[in-house]
Structure to design on (251 residues):
């Protein structure tokens, strides 16, 4: 898995490339926790290149959402591939996250 | 025609990548549809992660994963010598809970129940034996 960070205005975009599983999820966890510790309030996770997610990855998304909700921030997700979307649907995560079809759509919603 | 393949791994999370590679190979040889393969990969990762994280009080152990394909019926049998644990008795997570009340625990087993056709558990000779089945002809479901 590979993580890239980009900033657009007040939004930090975190792009994940590869598989988010029991092994790689800790890397994303440190990245997102680090951003929140630095007082970032709006994080958009771009999943266009994310091909796989397991519950270990979902746990990191949930952590980001809870932490940012607690400080009146926003945790957004965009561009889910089919496999990842299915996992979000089965877990009931589709209902608790703000999920957008594209990065632009998410940025416009901020 | 029946085909089978057994994989043995150590109780280390890094072994999951090895499992993924083998599952991909088996899926290709046995012509398992991609979506089913993705689901199988997910379920195995979840169950093995649980075994590795919660099944042992240290030490090196072997977890075995046996795949059998009989016509379109795929069976996956996971055997570990960890603490007795029946995943079928695990509480179902509340998937309708709000973000604040959501918990991740139990989600992996929930995936197995949702994505496989059947699950059965036995404690045999001090080992946990979990057998899952999946018909691979109903393709993209």
């Amino acid at each position: 898995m590979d993580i890239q960070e980009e900033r657009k205005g007040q939004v930090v975009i975190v792009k994940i490339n590869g598989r988010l599983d029991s092994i790689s999820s800790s890397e994303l966890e440190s990245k997102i926790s680090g951003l929140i510790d630095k007082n970032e309030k709006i994080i958009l996770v771009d999943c266009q290149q994310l091909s796989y997610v397991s519950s270990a990855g979902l746990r990191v998304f949930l952590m980001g959402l809870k932490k940012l909700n607690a400080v009146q921030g926003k945790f957004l997700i965009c561009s889910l591939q089919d496999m990842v979307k299915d996992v979000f649907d089965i877990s009931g995560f589709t209902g608790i996250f703000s999920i957008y079809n594209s990065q632009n759509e998410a940025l416009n919603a901020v | 025609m029946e085909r089978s393949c057994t994989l043995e791994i150590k109780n280390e999370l890094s072994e999951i990548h090895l499992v993924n590679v083998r599952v991909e190979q088996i899926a290709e040889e046995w012509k398992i549809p991609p979506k089913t393969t993705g689901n199988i990969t997910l379920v195995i990762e979840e169950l093995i992660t649980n075994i590795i994280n919660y099944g042992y009080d240290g030490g090196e152990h072997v977890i075995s994963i046996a795949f059998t394909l009989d016509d379109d019926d795929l069976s996956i049998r996971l055997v570990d010598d960890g603490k007795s644990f029946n995943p079928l008795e695990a509480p179902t997570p509340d998937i309708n809970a709000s973000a604040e009340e959501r918990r991740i625990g139990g989600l992996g087993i929930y995936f197995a129940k949702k994505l496989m056709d059947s699950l059965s558990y036995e404690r045999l000779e001090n080992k946990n034996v979990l057998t899952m089945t999946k018909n691979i002809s109903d393709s993209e479901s």
Q: What stands out?
A: Residues 34-54 of chain B form the longest helix (21 residues). Chain B has three helices and five strands. The first strand of chain B starts at residue 2 and ends at 10.
